[in-house]
């Protein structure tokens, strides 16, 4: 009888070990697989490209793309007076070199300065943050995880499709803000010729652009609690009389290339002859 009990115990131990290995393998598979989405919408015409459709419906962290609605809320509420409103860097935090200095709203927007927008969150407070999310119907509208990080791998989630809808409204002046507020944010989104700028520096972007072309963009990069990394580039292209909104998103393991969404957008805009 004792021998039977021992054998059963050994079998249970082996089974538990195998089960744990299976769970770990599934977890690693979930975080190691990459998927991407690229959306292109021509204003006044409609959607031009959706590739592939499935990945475009998955909600993920917006990361620094949330600086777009955050800047709108800051200007609308008056917690920031305008694009030139400067905040002092207090010398704390492990930030990129470009962030370790005083910044205006405009420069913090271009260089994706996290601490500047954390100060905006503190000035707005949790109730107004939640109210603005609902006002914009932005993603899952959840700012509950932490006041200064809910958009960076926290509770706030959004799909690429929802990002596209938000940007189309911004560029069609259909958001619930004064026209001057929307114009100010659109102007801060404009990129220097031939590059996309973020906290890590300047990244070549399908240069040279066709004569007279204006490209606007905002990157985003974060990893959530499960280890899933998100890379974003959202923006707008004005080419002659035509105007496009685009959303580029890549989701994958923690070590996902930082510029994955920038490269996807460059290829896709080139393939569609927008750039």
Layout: helices, strands, pairs:
Blueprint: H1 2-32, E1 35-42, E2 46-51, H2 67-77, E3 86-87, E4 103-104, H3 105-110, H4 114-136, H5 160-171, H6 179-189, E5 195-198, E6 201-204, E7 214-223, E8 229-239, E9 242-252, H7 260-271
Helix pairs in contact: 2-4, 2-6
Description:
The protein has 275 residues and is an alpha+beta fold. The protein is 39% helix and 21% strand. The chain has helices at 2-32, 67-77, 105-110, 114-136, 160-171, 179-189, 260-271; strands at residues 35-42, 46-51, 86-87, 103-104, 195-198, 201-204, 214-223, 229-239, 242-252. It is globular and about 45 Å long. The model is unreliable at 1-31 (pLDDT under 50).
What is the N-to-C order of secondary-structure elements (H for helix, E for strand)?
HEEHEEHHHHEEEEEH
**Beginning-to-end CA distance, first to last residue:** 77 Å
Task: Assign the structural class, choosing from mainly alpha, mainly beta, alpha/beta, alpha+beta, or little secondary structure.
Answer: alpha+beta
Mean pLDDT across every amino acid position: 89
Radius of gyration: 22 Å
**Proportion of strand residues:** 15-25%
Number of strands: 9
Largest sheet properties = 5 strands, antiparallel
Number of helices: 7
Cross-sheet strand order for the largest sheet: 2-1-9-8-7
Low-confidence segments: 1-31
Task: Please describe the structure with a list of short key phrases separated by commas or semicolons.
disordered N terminus, two-stranded antiparallel ribbon, 275 residues, alpha+beta, 21% strand, single chain
